[in-house]
Amino acid sequence: METEVTKIISTFPILLADRVTISIEKGEAVFYKGQTTLYAYFIEEGELIVQNPHQNGETYLISHMTKGSFMCDLEIISGNFINTTTVIANTDCTLIRFPSKQFLAALKSNHDFLFMVSQKMAEKMYRESYRLGDDLYKSGVDKLRVYLVKSYREDNNGAQITINKTRQVISHEVGLSIKTVNRSVKKLKEQERLSILAGKIHITPKHYKLLVNDLAD
Fold this sequence. Notes:
The chain is α+β, with helices and mostly antiparallel strands. The protein folds into two domains: 4-137, Sandwich (Jelly Rolls); 140-214, Winged helix-like DNA-binding domain superfamily/Winged helix DNA-binding domain (Arc Repressor Mutant, subunit A), CATH 1.10.10.10. It has helices at 2-10, 73-78, 100-109, 111-135, 140-155, 167-174, 178-190, 205-216, and strands at residues 20-24, 29-31, 39-45, 47-53, 59-66, 70-71, 86-89, 93-99, 161-163, 195-197, 200-203. A hairpin with a 5-residue loop joins strand 4 and strand 5 (59-66). Helix 5 (140-155) packs across helix 7 (178-190). Residues 24-124 form the Cyclic nucleotide-binding domain. Keywords: DNA-binding, Transcription, Transcription regulation. One of its GO terms (molecular function) is DNA binding. This is Crp/Fnr family transcriptional regulator. InterPro entries: cNMP-bd_dom, cNMP-bd_dom_sf, HTH_CRP, RmlC-like_jellyroll, WH-like_DNA-bd_sf, WH_DNA-bd_sf.
């Protein structure tokens, strides 16, 4: 991926002369839903969370974006210069920022650049379409099962793990409302798929095996 990122940066057209490299700290917002799209971005390093806040107060996770991806390309290419999502840094990030008008001019004048950006956008849309197709058949509790299994695999040292995240953060990462997360946690606790200690979710090796078996059925 490092080679690909370097290669993409080397192909940026001369018209993108006003681009700047910026650093974003973990937890910082790059932009918010509903704001005017003033810039396009390229992720040089790091991971970001794409969120969709709703008027009912709930915020849903749409996807994660990693290095090698463009942001705000959809808004600019479509001509609708209003951000459709909120993007938050999930790690410290290095981004390359382009003025939106300059980015659009480069797309119009450089066919290779247009094709590359369009291909990157199509890859994002393909992954999202594939994920949404899978999610249509998953209940809230199954989505939480997948999340817990993944968390255990990432943090497992052969013993119990503690998920030191609030229900709000978990709801964002899973893409469920807090109410659904709370109901699902309660159900899994009743099924002895997890335990709660000091308000935090704990997963033992036994819990993990049961969760994996549930998903395999």
